[in-house]
């Protein structure tokens, strides 16, 4: 459902458990601090109650920090929730994407893993993926392997909340007036397919999120979570 508050932000939310998963280990959260809005998705690794609880805690932690500081800081603080110096790959863990929307129309985005951020350009009327997945499959594509072969390794994650303190966090700034955050359950949808959905439903974030999840389900049996977030202070308001 769409989440709103009296100060204006509208967030379209849709989430669905994978058909054969015992529970939904995706989590999402948002937090507003003064005129800064932070949103996040965490895709928990696994399908246990412990993983689902961790994912929700990590998402809630990340947005509270990101709204006050930056998404990079939010990811790194959330990463501390699963740190364990006694093991190489602490658990539970998960992938994460966080965005902070600023009053000047900019959005700061940071991520670790294959949770993704997409941006809608209303002038070109197109959606493009703004994040590069941290997966072995993506690394192989960049080395020249065909997409067909590389796709076999898309489920091998090379960065996550458990690994962020070692591998770091990528980030960028965008002026796109509408962002879509998603878990990897929609990763087989093309930018063109997303564009068609957003063109039709950009004025209704809740319906837009629901339709993206519906389209993603046709190509994935994973948990799927989508946030459709219009910028509360879009750059266009200032010319």
TrEMBL record:
Listed CDD domains: PP2Cc (cd00143)
Entries under Gene3D superfamilies matching the protein: PPM-type phosphatase domain
* Chain segments carrying region Disordered: 1-20
The segment(s) forming the PPM-type phosphatase domain are 10-231
Q: Which domain of life is it from?
A: Bacteria
Recorded hits in InterPro entries, A to Z, give:
PPM-type-like_dom_sf, PPM-type_phosphatase-like_dom
Q: Which SUPFAM superfamilies does the UniProt record give?
A: PP2C-like
Q: What is this protein called?
A: Protein phosphatase
**What is the species listed in this Swiss-Prot or TrEMBL entry?**
Streptoalloteichus hindustanus
């Amino acid at each position: 459902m769409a989440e709103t508050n009296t100060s204006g932000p509208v967030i379209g939310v849709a989430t669905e458990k994978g058909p054969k998963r015992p529970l939904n280990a995706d989590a999402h959260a948002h937090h507003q601090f003064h005129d800064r809005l932070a949103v996040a998705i965490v895709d928990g690794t696994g399908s246990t109650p412990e993983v689902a609880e961790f994912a929700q805690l990590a998402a809630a932690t990340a947005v509270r920090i990101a709204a006050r500081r930056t998404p990079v800081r939010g990811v790194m603080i959330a990463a501390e929730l699963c740190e364990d110096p006694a093991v190489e790959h602490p658990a539970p863990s998960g992938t994460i994407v966080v965005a902070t929307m600023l009053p000047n129309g900019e959005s700061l985005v940071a991520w670790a893993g294959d949770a993704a951020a997409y941006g809608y350009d209303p002038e070109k009327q197109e959606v493009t993926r703004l994040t590069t997945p941290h997966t072995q499959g993506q690394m192989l594509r960049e080395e020249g392997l065909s997409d067909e072969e590389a796709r076999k390794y898309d489920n091998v994650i090379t960065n996550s909340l458990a690994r962020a303190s070692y591998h770091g966090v990528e980030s960028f700034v965008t002026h796109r007036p509408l962002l879509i955050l998603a878990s990897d359950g929609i990763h087989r949808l093309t930018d063109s397919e997303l564009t068609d959905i957003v063109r039709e439903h950009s004025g209704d974030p809740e319906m837009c999120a629901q339709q993206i999840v519906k389209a993603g389900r046709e190509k994935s049996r994973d948990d799927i979570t989508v946030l459709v977030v219009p910028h509360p202070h879009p750059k266009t308001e200032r010319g």
